[in-house]
Amino acid sequence: MCFFKKEEGFTLLEIMVTLVLGVILFLAFSRVFVFGLQSEAYIDNKLQAKSIASDIVEYIRQNRNLLDNTEEKNEIEWNDVEEPFEAEIIDKPYNSNNHLREVTIKIIWQERGNEKNYILYALLAGD
Amino acid sequence: MSLKNEEGMTLVMVIILIVVGSILVTTLLAAVRTHMNTAVHEESMSQAFYAADSGVELVRGNSKEIFEKFDEAEDNFYLEEKNNELNFHDINSKDNIPWFNFGDEVKFSIKVLDSEEIIFLSKGKHTINEKILKEIEFKLVPVPSFVNTFNLTDRTEEYDYEDHFSLLGGSYEDQIHLTSWPDFDEDENFWEPYFDEELNFDEHFENGDDYTIDEGIYEEYRLYDNSLDINLQGTNEKIQDSIIIVDGHININMSDKEEIKNSIIIVKDYILVEGTATINDTLLLIYGDEIYDHGSHTGFLTDAGAEATIIISEVLPKPGFDEFIITELGEGEIGDLALEHWQQK
Fold first, then answer.
1. Chain B residues touching residue A121 (CB < 8 angstroms)
2. Are residues B46 and A54, on separate chains, in Cβ contact within 8 Å?
């Protein structure tokens, strides 16, 4: 009364060795996967930050009165940014040119406890 | 060798795992690497573009100085800044191109492409990736200007003009760039319709009805002999470079998406604004004996949110009149300069 053909199958040792090697490989590969996913998240945030910075430059271009030609260093307040981003905008005179302001837009965000940023520089003529 | 022999399967399975895992990891890393390169490339493109655009802004900000010195310039001359002065130079060597540096690793140069037409080429570079270069071509155009000087000081106390100006953001002196100005008819005591086919100043309404402007207009001269509704709400259109004269009152109904720009609106009675009108570089001129009795007269000012200059006078201001002087620029005088034909190469 034997329904099953006799199979030799895997020995416990083979299974153990396979499992151990599999776990080691999985751990090694998973680190690379995690790194890949984190890099993708960073790239995604960076591209978003670039887009935000461009939007801010265009807004200032349309509202040049935000640039203060009288100040050595003028900070423009900007709260219209969604989490996790924050924007720091500073304009200062470009060399000694009275008509131009050097605008520095720094978009900051947090990734796994570390601060990342994207900085865009542009010169804009004042109002 | 039998197929049923399963000895050594561990090695086979491990090799399969390594191969599959390696393929997955390699694919993922290749994708990440591509995306990373794309992001770096995008960043450099953006920095290079804004560097090139900064060259345009430099010319915009210093347009008068550059225009005055343009006689020295020839084709392929470069603009250079030394001791806070901008000058044009003939640069023969590629190594000597005068770059304007700013920020970290961003620079641009400005070259004269066509000295006859005053066309420039601004090149922007992000120095991290020197190969990425953005170029913007643009033209500096002197705009025929009328300098309008408003002498209102003797009436400031009576009508509190300062408030009107501060609310509207305008100034006592403003430049409105129109290539034509309506003549004043002394006999009729009104601005003459001025027809100029080349400029398309050709609309003239005189049938005593009320009128409506419900679409954008550009470079048009319009005279209405009764009241006018400017109803642009929701159209996203503009009234630009136009003169509108109304022998009645005007109701303006528009949002911040529509705009009245670089125009002159002369109205006899009053202007009422519904919504937030965006009115830039525009002269609103209101005249008439009874305008100050109109209850809602001051209301329109606070709602307008405009960058316009407003003149209110009991009598119709006209050229030469004490309160309203129009001066056309003399020969050799430089009015405002505009940047046109902006194009990315």
1. 47, 50-51, 54, 102-104, 106
2. yes
Pairwise pLDDT comparison (B108 vs B17), residue with the higher score: B108
Mutant choice from B5, B27, B50 vs A, greatest count of A C-beta within 10 A:
B50
- Report which of residues A90 and B208 the model is more confident about: A90
SS (H, E, C) chain A: CCCCCCCCCCCHHHHHHHHHHHHHHHHHHHHHHHHHHHHHHHHHHHHHHHHHHHHHHHHHHHCHHHCCCCCCCEEECCCCCCCCCEEEEEEEEECCEEEEEEEEEEEEEEECCEEEEEEEEEEEECC
pLDDT of B78 above 50 = yes
pLDDT at B326: 53
Pairing status of strand B173-176 against strand B146-150: antiparallel
Question: Residue B287 pairs with which residues in a beta bridge?
Answer: B313
Give the tokens for residue B121: 């080429």
| Residue B138 C-beta-side C-alpha neighbours within 13 Å | 23
Can you spell out the DSSP letters for B86-103? EEEEE--SGGG--PEEET
pLDDT at residue B295 in the model: 41
Residue reference for tokens 């399975």: B13
Half-sphere exposure of B186 (CA within 13 A, CB side): 3
Structure tokens at A120: 């865009």
pTM flag (> 0.95): no
Model confidence at B223: pLDDT above 70: yes
**Which ipTM score applies to this complex?**
0.83
Chain A hits for B38, Cβ within 8 Å = 43
**Which among A46, A53, A94 has CB closest to B102?**
A94
In chain B, where are the structural domains located? Answer: 1-142+338-345, 146-328
